[in-house]
Amino acid sequence: MGDTLEFNEIYQEVKGSWNDGRLRFSKQSVVYKNSKTGKVDSISASDINQATWRRVCLGHGIKLGTSTGNVYKYDGFRDTDFERISEFFKANYKLELTEKDMCVKGWNWGTAKFSGPLLSFDVNDNAAFEIPLSNVSQCATGKNEVTLEFHQNDDTEVSLMEVRFYVPPSQTDERQDPVEAFAENVLTKADVIQATGDAVCIFKELQCLTPRGRYDIRIYPTFLHLHGKTFDYKIPYTTVLRLFLLPHKDQRQMFFVISLDPPIKQGQTRYHFLILLFSKEENITLTLNMSEEDVERRFEGKLSKNMSGSLYEMVSRVMKALVNRKITVPGNFQGHSGAQCITCSYKASSGLLYPLERGFIYVHKPPVHLRFEEISCVNFILLFYFQGMKGKIDEYSDSDEDQHDAYLERMKAEGKIREEGNDSDESDGGSDESFNPGEEDDDIAEEYDSNASASDSSEDGDDSEDDGAKKKKPVKKPKVVKEKKERKPRKEKKQKDTGGPKRPMSAYMLWLNSSRERIKSENPGISITEISKKAGEMWRQLGKDEKEEWDTKAGEAKRQYDIAKKEYKESGGSQHKESKKSAGKKDEKKRKPAGGDKDKERGGGGGGGANDSFKSREFIPTSESSSDSDHKSKSKKSKRSKSKKVKKYTSLK
């Protein structure tokens, strides 16, 4: 057997959630690395005094107990791993790996046992469930009842808020209340943050970027207290993941970043990073609220009772000593401006990106920390922005053709057409004295008479004094009409045929539908997005023979689809039926106004003066009826010009 044992895809239980990672057993320690956060937990081999093997929801698991009272749970092992781990523990840790079953009866009455930092609820000497008392945030008592409230974990979809225990009254010892005794056992090990005693030191009115505002930071031995005008935050040192000290681009300010896991929260907002902004010129003299002997014994020379220097140096030095984590600073990177960061933007906000030795960090809105092992690919995009002025266009143009603007020429041409159309409307809309009969006769001959020359000759005899004006303006007539004719109607959107056969699925989708349940069973608790990622990886790892099977199924589905689609088209399809219905409705609409016009013509609908000039359709000659139908087809002209032309036409007749 080797000196180490390593296991991948092992889950660690943290406040009700399972964190994926890698577990390694060595002779000196047990090390677990979280795949998501990169946090490393190390347990010294000499501190382990208990090891239990048990069957859990994710296969098999190990519960390790230490001499300091901490309990660590790791799940995701296979049944065959028991012998290897048991032999390793005997050879290196001198410890027996015992097997213990869990109670699965589902009973809600039993015995509550306090064993160090754990509250175990046993049924028939088998544990039904265990509660780490460090997860308890509040303990309240009532009549024969104890209520436990828990710290919430944002990584879980469903969280346990509270548990209530019914404690029956004691039959033997009446001097001690069993409810109070139960609550005292809980509070001795619970993680209830209380500001007891004096703070080690206090920093007044520090500028905080996230959460935004100015806060008084009070440093206690076990937690950090942010006191603001509106909100207060208590941050245990155990939740501090990393510390960063980053110089601002202007070289006059410093960022001090505290990474938190789990984050602090205010309502629905979560703050995974605490960012403080300091000025390099601000100095402070600090005195710790401890004796020199206590300072020396607790911090081992890292801090002294009296210290002075820059404010950011004092805060970072105190935090490093209390949290017992190193401070990460930028590496040897230097940008073109001489700064150790790059100005960039994330989504809609601008910020600074700092290349570090093992990752990147972006500040400040929102703060983002990326480790190199999380990065799968890097894309470089070179963008050019051109901003030109009108006076400098000639410097970059090669020829006169480059200056031609097709859109501008088109807009000018349309403007001229509109002006000419307005001029013709004004000439038509004037009084009868300004009316030009020669010009109107040309339009009428063009619209109503098949022989335009005959109408011209008849009109020349009546209005000879306007011949000069008529000859000067022959070009205006066809322009407006021609431009209007050139406008094409809008294309109707093609409606989707919902009654046709559905398209066949690809080979990958067929494989995914058959493998989805298997992926869920092999990865309990996996989300929908993770299923897609996992399925994509599994599909890429399939061999050619396995993929060929699904390609054959997809080809067969495609052939069936082609046959069904052909039969559907031959039968006419739903669109063909709808088009017939719509065509029938249009024909009915066209018939209705025709009948109405006939009724109006037969009824007369007016006085005797109107009936004198009226001619019904059956008394109009063939040439007149054809011209009348042509007149109705050209309905784009204005109503006023239309009425004048009809009057002029009837007077000519």
What does this structure look like?
The protein is an alpha+beta fold. Helix content is 35%, strand content 28%. The chain is built from 17 helices and 28 strands. Strands 4-3-2-1-7-6-5-8 form an eight-stranded mixed beta sheet. A hairpin with a 4-residue loop joins strand 17 (223-227) and strand 18 (232-236). The longest helix has 31 residues, at 573-603. The chain starts with a strand and ends with a helix. The relative contact order is 0.04. Mean pLDDT is 76; it is low at 388-402, 429-473, 476-485, 593-627 and 631-653. Residues 501-569 form the HMG box domain. Residues 539-587, 594-603 have a biased composition (Basic and acidic residues). It is found in: Nucleus, Nucleolus; Nucleus; Chromosome. Keywords: Chromosome, DNA damage, DNA repair, DNA replication, DNA-binding, Nucleus, Transcription, Transcription regulation. This is FACT complex subunit SSRP1.
